[in-house]
Amino acid sequence: MQPFLHVADLSLRFGGTTAIRDVGFELDEGSLLAIIGPNGAGKTSIFNCLSGVYRPQQGSIRFRGTDLRGLRPDAIARLGVARMFQNIELFDNLTVLDNLMLGRHRHLRYSTLSALLYDRRARRAEVANRRVIEDIIDFLQIQAIRRSMVGMLPYGLKKRVELGRALAMEPALLLLDEPVAGMNAEETEDMARFILDVRSELGVTMIMIEHEMGLVMDIADEVLVLDFGERIAHGPPAQVQRDPAVIKAYLGEAS
Ligand SMILES: Nc1ncnc2c1ncn2[C@@H]1O[C@H](COP(=O)(O)OP(=O)(O)OP(=O)(O)O)[C@@H](O)[C@H]1O
């Protein structure tokens, strides 16, 4: 059986800078992989390659059998890869509901004519879209703020809506970019619970970049550790935590 995601020999350079060097990993469907590493290790570059923002010079990225290399971000999104950004990508002066609806529409193929005529098919699609959004609102327990302007919400709730925006695409693979950065302990705990529910109840496979080591150790199935663009360890959290190369990379950063 082909792996859900298979990344092999991935390399990305910017002029003289090597952001990623020969990185490879596999991901099983339904699992949660954390990518960790010191600043500048290449974590964001991996996400940008997976979502089509950067074009790696070398290697392959096979997602459910399709090579993503060379595909545009919108094409990759349509294949079922969504991203929750670290910097919230929501419209502050729109409601939670409108933001979620936009999150859905932005990535769906549109027929302008049918939207104009508002024919039966478009109406049916609209009803189906609405149902997906209502399910997400229930799932994330944000009924009480559905009509609130996003700009008025506290940070933790904004991040929850940002997660909802990514889920609105009904992704098969979700990329989480530091989902708990800037959160207090309670918000972090809530987000951790939602991430675990996304995996177990919605069956979404996830890759998460995260600096918060407690969270990584608690919820990740596997951890990929990068340093200076190279893979230095990959395995279950407990094993990676004991790895001498990982300890050295982190102590090196602290000193
Ligand atoms: N668009 C770009 N142009 C030039 N260099 C880049 C670009 N994007 C990333 N790099 C370089 O690639 C290397 C890896 O950067 P990347 O942002 O992937 O690291 P990171 O692990 O996500 O770091 P951080 O934890 O600080 O976000 C760095 O040296 C960075 O300066």
TrEMBL record:
Q: Does the keyword Phosphoprotein apply?
A: no
Q: Which GO terms describe its cellular component?
A: plasma membrane
Keywords (alphabetical) are: ATP-binding, Nucleotide-binding, Transport
- What's a single GO MF annotation on this record? ATP hydrolysis activity
ABC transporter domain mapped to chain residues: 5-253
Q: Which InterPro entries match?
A: AAA+_ATPase, ABC_AA/LPS_Transport, ABC_transporter-like_ATP-bd, BCA_ABC_TP_C, P-loop_NTPase
Signal peptide extent: none
Which SMART domains does this entry report, sorted A to Z?
AAA
CDD domains per record: ABC_Mj1267_LivG_branched
Q: What is this protein called?
A: ABC transporter ATP-binding protein
Protein source organism: Phytoactinopolyspora halotolerans
